[in-house]
Amino acid sequence: MQAEPQAFDRVLSSMCTEPHPAARKAAERFLATNPGDPGTYPTISALEDDAVSLLGEITELPEPAGYVASGGTEANIQAVRIARERADSRRPNVVMPESGHFSFQKAADILGVELRIVPTDDDHRADLEAINSSVDDETAMIVGVAGTTEYGRVDPIPALGEIAKDVGALFHVDAAWGGFVLPFTDYEWTFADAPIDTMTIDPHKVGQAAVPAGGLLARSSELLDELAVDTPYLESTSQATLSGTRSGAGVASAAAAMETLWPTGYREEYHRSQRNAAWLAEALEKRGYEVVDPTLPLVAARLPRSTFDALRAKGWRISRTATGELRVVCMPHVTREMLASFVADLDRLEVRASVPVVSDD
Amino acid sequence: MQAEPQAFDRVLSSMCTEPHPAARKAAERFLATNPGDPGTYPTISALEDDAVSLLGEITELPEPAGYVASGGTEANIQAVRIARERADSRRPNVVMPESGHFSFQKAADILGVELRIVPTDDDHRADLEAINSSVDDETAMIVGVAGTTEYGRVDPIPALGEIAKDVGALFHVDAAWGGFVLPFTDYEWTFADAPIDTMTIDPHKVGQAAVPAGGLLARSSELLDELAVDTPYLESTSQATLSGTRSGAGVASAAAAMETLWPTGYREEYHRSQRNAAWLAEALEKRGYEVVDPTLPLVAARLPRSTFDALRAKGWRISRTATGELRVVCMPHVTREMLASFVADLDRLEVRASVPVVSDD
Known about the structure:
The structure is a homodimer. Chain A is of the alpha/beta class.
């Protein structure tokens, strides 16, 4: 029970990060509160309003409806749930590029909707033609991803929104990871850029809040009302969240992180991470590995499986894409020094692999 | 943003409480970890195994399957989901006494199962005859409550289990709140007492862990496997939880609280809370209010609405049952002094109500 949480100095695979000091402090102060019971815990409930309002600023939605969810999975499930409730069809479908997060598979399974997974284009982005030929009258929602999990790609959000509008479906954008870097890029991804109905954007990823602090936003409170369930014994009257009791730590730290970092801190962080990603991509390319261009701070590269395993054995927390590429997420805790040390380990492995080994100690 | 979280000295309505110091310390240490990604965060993942194992001890299940959920709502949703996956029927139903938590309404809505809510007996417990006449071939699950939200009642768990067995349904016990007091009572409620398939038991309630730390237990890992979804980009291969990223703080604090308090600390806490509940019940009865006998540390009493509102105006965080009774949960943070102060405020209100008021300042 006295085990130490491992340090972050070798974590390259996570979309979570060390909370910002202000976020950690807020989390610790509000550890014993429950925003799921606003009648009993009004202060944290007010902080949640602040957090949602800041998320609205970031995503260009002046009067946001939404809440701080347990994470992107909950937010995505809830978005699909809204679409299902809105659908006329008894067997509604959700159309998503194959780059969409596996939480939509979970959502489809739980909610009993059909998930239509559509191949992406050569750059791992939603293929508009393929999406267009997958939608039909039963389509309740189209999903666009703004910052994919595997390659950090941004789908053509406005064009996807148009397809959704044409077919009478809701349009959901999953910016769980990308939402805190995209404001500093030229991508079109916000509520102002496209007819987006709901969005996932997680403060506990690049937003540097403490887990659990996902975010669900909706263009109107009517959309959120689709989720409401009566709460007989609480002084509030209904609840739109998936959980009942919720973490005040997550909510308070989300509000504190965004208050502290939006926009200047996040902007600086984005530029630093993006430079790191470019540096790593170049370092890997130089060594002859095939690298997927890091258009956002996420690098994928094809390494031999044995090399990957050897790096993991050295303590590096790395993960792979579905097709087996190394995947390094340049989160706020990932420094140039870490990446240099990672590449140095890689170089040592390659030397060992190419030189006959006499002694192995 | 500098708002203070309110103190707990007037919180009588919550089923959450101040985390035990050991739980708080563990939560703060593991704030930046994610048990939803065990390949990256192995230490917290091992702590989760410890937590599940301790929950198994408490509920008399030697080889427990399960996980630390975001709360009782998630655990209940997941239990219903297991039952739905196991059901032969296309339109399965869940049969539950009306004392069941509203999260089952949420579960039914999300999962598309029919929820059959059955009236309770005169003591607010599941009515076996009524349950029996509500089940049929399409019944996928019967829910029993071990410590109801409104009155702290324990359903006849073994008898409900027999009904479930007879009809071929799974049997779920919701001990979200009761699970950490029941081991010290004579009630039959554990996996050893009855053919229970799944159970909800929340460390973040009477278990004194930090939110979010609910608990889902299953008699076998095969039951849990019904929830598994593939996780393409994580080093683990599948995920049975409803959330993806999860709070290491909740998991670590659950393990720490149970390590510290099970069984001695919880036993002492139960006796103290139960004495407090009995004291409050007697104090209210003496003053002429109708009181529901607190068989567990939860007191319900019929107060005039105006009195209830006046107490809330004085800062007391209290809530009501569906029929409007005052509801006080004697959680670990609730002391005799708090209750005495509450009763003194009640007395002052009653004096004011019965004496003509000349000046109101």
